Amino acid sequence: MKSINLDSFVTKMTELPQIFIRKLGISLDEDLLKMGLEMVHIMIINLIGKSEEKPMISEIGKRLIISNAKMTYIIDEMESKKLLERKRIDKDRRIVRLSLTKKGEEVMKKDEDRIKHQMKLFLQSLNEKERDRFVKAIETIYSVLKKYKGIEK
User: Fold this and answer.
1) Quick check: 97 and 55 in contact, CB under 8 A?
2) What tens digit of pLDDT does each residue of 4-31 get?
3) What per-residue confidence (pLDDT) applies to 19?
4) I need a surface site. Which of 19, 20, 92, 149 has the fewest CB within 10 A?
5) pLDDT band at residue 151, thresholds of 50, 70 and 90?
6) What are the Cα distances from residue 93, in Å, to 41, 77, 86, 96, 137?
7) Is 98 in a helix, a strand, or coil?
8) 61-66 long-range contacts, CB within 8 A, separation 24+
9) pLDDT, tens digit (0-9, with 9 covering 90-100), for 95-144
10) Residue 73 near residue 86, CB atoms below 8 Å
């Protein structure tokens, strides 16, 4: 295999999420926009909803690289919209974990369904050979990243 230019490849990797969003038409749904939600709210909803153990505000902030002060503001806003709730731990009342409300779960499901629909439309637009190559490439990336222990904290 030929040697790759790491700098050039890293640049391509950093552009990939935006290309996915742009090409797949992934943006916020009209209903979510009317609720005053932004992408950060959806990211937080997904982090809470897909966590095995309900996360603390600081844990979400670290994952999204958002300061504690800003996270508190965002969480207050989301709590006022009844998307999530804070739950104190009985053993240590200083620990506050976040969980989704029914409304938050509905938002997560709606967003997930919309993204899946957009991805399906994209895959259907490819010819069979392109689709096979694309799926194989994504499966390879998924497999490699799943094994990688790396820098996630």
Assistant:
1) yes
2) 788 888 888 888 878 877 777 767 778 7
3) 82
4) 149
5) low
6) 26, 22, 12, 7, 47
7) strand
8) 62/153, 64/40, 66/40
9) 899 999 999 999 999 989 988 888 898 899 999 999 999 999 999 988 88
10) no
Tokens (6 digits) for 66: 């958002």
Q: Give residue 153's pLDDT.
A: 45
CA 60 to each of CA 42, 89, 122, 134: distance values in angstroms, whole numbers, following the listed order: 12, 17, 31, 31
Question: Which tokens sit at 151?
Answer: 């820098």
**Secondary structure element (H or E) that encloses residue 131, with its range:** helix 128-147
Cross-strand pairs, 86:
98
Q: Report the candidate in 134, 108, 111, 133 with the shortest Cα–Cα distance to residue 16.
A: 134
pTM value surpassing 0.85: no
Structure tokens at 2: 């030929």
Other Cβ atoms less than 10 A from the Cβ of 42: the count is 20
